[in-house]
Amino acid sequence: MFQEKEMLDRVRKGDRKAQQALYNHFAPRMLGLCFRYCDDAGDAEDVLQDAFIRVFRYIGTFNGEGSLEGWVRRIVVNTALNHLKKQSLTRFQADVDALPEGDQPAVAAASTLELEELLRLIRSLPAGYRVVFNMYEIEGYSHAEIAKMMGVSVNTSKSQLMKARRMLQKRIDESEL
Q: Does one domain contain both 107 and 80?
């Protein structure tokens, strides 16, 4: 059983076994998160490793507010975003006009799609669309938070999400034919 408080104390003291246990506990879920942001397995694994280096470096700053998993998740997301920025994969349009809320189509329920196929379709989105879609729809960030983290306007975030939804809906429809 994973005893978070005891584990944190040991990790903060530099206990390698505790670090390994923490890694083993969170890595599988966080690798899945990395796959949603990265194009291939190698990049996802690199992001995961970089993220855990940061987790261990900054574990002393975790003050217990919120969950440890949420704190680790935020580090992983930020590491994935930094990775994408370094690769210049996230190219966003500037100065996008505000979109009316009713102009954003919802992605239809993909109940006939297998989860693996749906994740493959999400990964096939262009990087900018994929990042905003993941952050908004899956991670639950607001457009204001996405804009701040990505260095874009709120309207750009909304536009990227709308385009991602449309493209994903089209790909879902095509895959169901």
A: no
